[in-house]
Amino acid sequence: MELPFTPRSPLWMVTRSPEVNELVCALQDARRHLGGGVASPLTLRFSRARLRAVRDAFRTSIRAGEAKLHRLATLLCERLTSGDVQLSSVVIGESVDQERFRLIQPVSEADLYAETDLELGNRLLQRVRMLDASGGWSSATLIANFVEYQPLQENPRHVHKLISRIKAEEELWNKVTDEIFRLDQRVARDKKLRPLSRYVKDVFGIKVVAGSVQAARELQQELADLRFEADELKRCDVPVEASTTRARLLEVKDYLSDPKRSGWAAIKTVVDWWDIPFEVQVQPLPNYLREREWLTRESHEAFRSRREAIRRAVAQDDRAFALTHALLRWLFREPAGVPVPALPSGVTVELVD
To answer: What's the CATH code, domain 10-84+152-352?
Structure first.
């Protein structure tokens, strides 16, 4: 079966799973019916077992990608610092009163490879209950989560910390709907949507926080031609092959010389390493602290809200998109007592064991 993914599309960068591909193909075939353009009846039949297989395959792919992300972060720690670092899972949460807070929990290297970053973040947040304005206790909402690598001693390159993060959310129904409707390409073409976001160009990323602007520029020069020796790769359990010994430079954007309107500043480098594109940001410490404190629009913490704003805007103008998204959300959550979303005339859904 021919893959429906476009090369380097968001879903393709996260998973090349046959199970996910099969689901995307089936829904692409049904898209014209969901849009109401075909009069012939259509029955969409889904197996609970197959849906579980898709969810498992998606989670496995994310974990595999994150494993490469953490290997690259570990290699950079060894190269740029003493290599002796404290690993922490960091969660940005929000109470029902819309107050944001930060939780930090030390984790082991084994934890990083046993669970996804999102699972680590949710596990930490589930331990928290917030006292709201009405005097009741409520759960907090996850805004963002990431992993920090904190050097335990000074280093000659003045690296304050490294941070790894992934822009692949847990909602598989969002990722599949986006792929079916080529949402990233649509945003790039649409004048109304383009200002909202570049959408998803990079999926996996690392931020290196440097002590000063000068230190950030020197680090960037080193990252521009990043190569690893065989002994470095072996120490980090990375196979020695062409795709791992060198990080191929794809793009550099200098926002230190030309900061964003919000004041956000960093140098962004996109590299291809171990067959995955990674964005490596180098950011001076003062700007990083400002971003962390104020959660500027360019920050990872605001990424999810920008993405949801795009989906809402598209759903208002595209009924097929709205219906597909609602159907997938129902299929993957299948909440007890919640009926299947309303579909166009002649389209029915069957969920079988």
So the answer is: 3.30.460.10
